[in-house]
Amino acid sequence: MSNGLSRSTGYRPEVRTSYFQPGLHCGQIVDSEWRPIQYETRKDQIGVPNGYFDQKLSEHGLLSFASAQAIRWWFVANAEAERATGALCLETRLQKYELVIEHKVTAGEAIHALDCRGREVAKPEVEAEVSP
Predict the structure, then answer these.
(1) 3 state SS of 63
(2) What's the pLDDT tens digit per position in 107-116?
(3) Would the N or C end of the chain have less CB density within 10 A of its end CB?
């Protein structure tokens, strides 16, 4: 059977502020430490799409580059819309991760053998060794 590794690059958008005190932006406390941008994923609403090959990334809380960029700018746009002074002093970045998945496929026991009419195929009988 087959064995191998798959590698993918994923990103997590992060935010911090250069302002001297923490602030509340988009429902998230933003301080001087880099922290992941909090967002929700929903299938029933318009949002950032997840590509076919990005499914494994999303299972680990990661995004494709384009999706991470979209979340980053969504956050900044919402922060600007929340207050008259906008999103001054916000800084964003994309933290890069490598997702490595090892896979191994091995054969197991064959089960439920059927003939062309859907009837079970009889298991071959094992002949007992005869001692002289």
Answers:
(1) strand
(2) 888 888 888 8
(3) C
